[in-house]
Amino acid sequence: MPFHQTVQTTLRAKIILLTCAFAVIASVSVVWLNGSKAREVVGANVAVSTLSNESQKVAIRLEEDFVDMVQDARIVSLTPPITGMIRSRETGTDPVDGSTYDLWRSRLATIFTSVMEERPSYTQMRYIALDDSGSELVRVNREANGTLAVVDESQLQTKAGEPYFQAALSLEKGESMFSEVSFNREHGEVTQAYVPTIRSVVPVYSAEGDAYGLIVINADYEALLQESLSRIAPNFDLFIFHTGGDVFEYNAATGNTRYIPNGAASGQLRDYQSLFEDQEEGPLYQFGDDILFSTWIEDFSDARGLHLDVVLRASRAAVLFASRESFVQVAGLAIALILGSLICAALIADRMTNPLRRMTRRIKQYTDWSQTGDLYLPVDHDDEIGDLSRAFSDLVSQLQDSQARSANIILNAVDGVIVVD
Question: ∠ CA 252-196-179 to the nearest 5 degrees?
Answer without folding.
Answer: 115
